[in-house]
Structure formats: structure tokens, C-alpha cells
Amino acid sequence: MPKRVLQGVVVSDKMKDTVTVLVERRFTDPVMKKTIRRTKRYHAHDAQNAFKTGDKVRIRECVPISKTKRWEIYTGEEA
């Protein structure tokens, strides 16, 4: 099964080896037919501490690294 890849913006880089990524999804309300925006924050593993607040990043599912980290920064080069 392929791993999910999400795109978002780094909102916090204060932790060591971890960034907080805000991911927004849009969908149409089934009753009102309006476009709704929902956001969610994910903790992602950033081993090199390369990304700073405001950077656009892609994150990919991975094995659990800690209690809250199940995502890693995805650059696309990994096979």
C-alpha cells in the first residue's frame, strides 16, 4: 500500500528534529454546496533541521518515531 503524501506549511520549528506542519483540505459541503476549509497540524520528522517557519513542505507517512510523530519530511528523492 502506498504511503500518503500531504502538502502544508511549517508553522513551528522550535523542537529538535521536528517541525509542525499545517495541512489544509477543501471539500464541498453535501447540503449547503459551499466549499469548506479544514486544517490539521501534524508533527513531522526533520532530521537535518533544514525547514523553517513559513516553508512549504510535503510530508509522508512513516513508522511511529515518537508518541506524536508518524510523518516525515518528503523530498521525493527516496525510492
Automatic annotation (TrEMBL):
This is Small ribosomal subunit protein uS17. It comes from Candidatus Phaeomarinibacter ectocarpi. PANTHER family: 40S RIBOSOMAL PROTEIN S11 FAMILY MEMBER, SMALL RIBOSOMAL SUBUNIT PROTEIN US17M. CDD domains: Ribosomal_uS17 (cd00364). Pfam families: Ribosomal_S17. One of the primary rRNA binding proteins, it binds specifically to the 5'-end of 16S ribosomal RNA. The lineage of its organism: Bacteria, Pseudomonadati, Pseudomonadota, Alphaproteobacteria, Hyphomicrobiales. InterPro entries: NA-bd_OB-fold, Ribosomal_uS17, Ribosomal_uS17_bact/chlr. The keyword Disulfide bond does not apply. One of its GO terms (molecular function) is structural constituent of ribosome. NCBIfam families: PRK05610.1, uS17_bact. One of its GO terms (cellular component) is cytosolic small ribosomal subunit. The keyword Ribosomal protein applies. The gene is rpsQ. GO terms for biological process: translation. Part of the 30S ribosomal subunit. Keywords: Ribonucleoprotein, Ribosomal protein, RNA-binding, rRNA-binding.
